[in-house]
Specification:
CATH topology of the largest domain: Immunoglobulin-like
Helix content: 10-25%
Structural class: alpha+beta
CATH architecture of the largest domain: Sandwich
Strand content: 35-45%
Number of helices: 1
CATH class of the largest domain: Mainly Beta
Shape: elongated
Distance between the termini: 67 Å
Number of strands: 10
Number of domains: 2
Length: about 160
């Protein structure tokens, strides 16, 4: 092996060893969370800790109906969410700006750790072309409002 390649590899391994040691020391310095609080929408970029209800859609924030026929009748899609908080979650209202969309949502509180469903029914009648609809979901989660999306294309 030539000396330059060997030197580069040694430097790379040394950097990895230093990074690993730093990561281990940082992990030991992280304080323990209060057991009354729970992590909600835990990502590597942002961590939200709440003491209360927490509406968590995960990656289920967009529903693609694909291509649907205008004469094919109403189409239904569902969005699942979880109450990742430690108190009951109440969906207070769900709004959309088009009469072509009908929404149903849980009327009773969703218990901590339980899941709920928001059902979206789209009527393609007289809606030819590509569509994108934003649906606003309000609850007693401190974040208050969430946006879920539906999309697709109505063809003849």
């Amino acid at each position: 092996m030539n000396n330059r390649l060997y030197s580069c590899l040694c430097a790379l391994f040394a950097a990895v060893a230093v990074y690993s040691a730093d990561a281990a020391s940082v992990a030991q310095e992280v304080p323990q969370q209060d057991s009354a609080k729970v992590a909600c929408r835990d990502t590597t970029v942002q961590k939200r800790v709440v003491d209360g209800p927490c509406m968590d859609f995960g990656d289920d924030t967009e529903y693609d109906f694909g291509k649907i026929r205008e004469s094919g009748g109403k189409q239904t899609g569902t969005f699942m969410f979880k109450n990742s908080g430690n108190r009951p979650l109440v969906v207070t209202k769900v709004m959309v700006s088009c009469k072509c969309v009908n929404i149903t949502f849980p009327k009773k509180p969703v218990a901590p750790g339980a899941e709920g469903t928001i059902t979206v029914t789209y009527d393609p009648k007289k809606q030819k072309g590509i569509f994108h609809k934003a649906i606003q979901v309000y609850s007693n989660d401190p974040q208050a409002r969430f946006i879920i999306l539906i999309k697709g294309e109505v063809v003849e």
